[in-house]
Amino acid sequence: MNIFRLAGDMTHLASILVLLLKIHTIKSCAGISLRTQELYALVFITRYLDIFDGFSSIYNSIMKLIFLGSSLSIVWYMRRHKVVRRSYDKDQDTFRNQFIVLPCLLLALVFNHKFTFKEVMWTFSLYLEAVAILPQLVLLQRTRNIDNLTGQYVFLLGSYRALYILNWVYRYFTEPRFVRWTTWIAGFVQTLLYADFFYYYIVSWKNNVKLELPA
């Protein structure tokens, strides 16, 4: 544990809290991609298969339960809640998740540290998380009109991964033989996908105008 990882975890947690705040208080999921939320739920399910038999610390166990529970609850609200689901823009959120899931699964089957079920699923979760934001970014680009909470959610989600890159850099220089090429490459790709959004978010914040992405 170091300050960069802790900051990354708290930023990730903050992004989820912002999204849940929007869903619970405004009773709306407008601008939120169900496709992306389903991908994140799949990420956490496949990553935390060891939650009941691989205890490492109370902190890790609590964070795993929070991410699993929150991701599944968000999907449930968007699909089943009689009020929230009405605000979901199904016609705009048309990204086909199979074009993401299947390539990530094939990559995990070929490029992994050890060919076991848990290891392949863990590697799959890394690849999938790297690109899970794509349906959300596509939806925002289509709708263009982005409310404050949605913009904050995506910005915090991208910031969490950027902070994790700093965590890896710190560990590389402070821990002997710390090399995680699969994790590093997936994290770097994930951060790059946010670059365009970061630019327009910061510009809108600096100029105190509503966030809009180019068509």
UniProtKB/TrEMBL annotation:
Top-level taxon of the source organism: Eukaryota
Q: Does the keyword S-adenosyl-L-methionine apply?
A: no
Keyword Magnesium (UniProt):
no
Give the record's keywords alphabetically. Endoplasmic reticulum, ER-Golgi transport, Membrane, Protein transport, Receptor, Signal, Transmembrane, Transmembrane helix, Transport
Check the record and name the InterPro entries matching this protein: ER_ret_rcpt (IPR000133)
Membrane topology classification: Multi-pass membrane protein
Signal sequence, start to end: 1-31
Entry's Gene Ontology BP terms? protein retention in ER lumen; protein transport; vesicle-mediated transport
Annotated Gene Ontology MF terms? ER retention sequence binding
Give TM regions: 58-78, 99-115, 121-140, 152-170, 182-202
Q: Which GO terms describe its cellular component?
A: endoplasmic reticulum membrane
The principal localisation class reads: endoplasmic reticulum
Which Pfam families does the record cross-reference, listed alphabetically? Answer: ER_lumen_recept
Where in the cell does this protein reside? Endoplasmic reticulum membrane
Q: Which protein family is it in?
A: Belongs to the ERD2 family.
Q: What is this protein called?
A: ER lumen protein-retaining receptor
Name the source organism: Cucurbita maxima (Pumpkin)
Tell me the classification of the organism that encodes this protein: Eukaryota, Viridiplantae, Streptophyta, Embryophyta, Tracheophyta
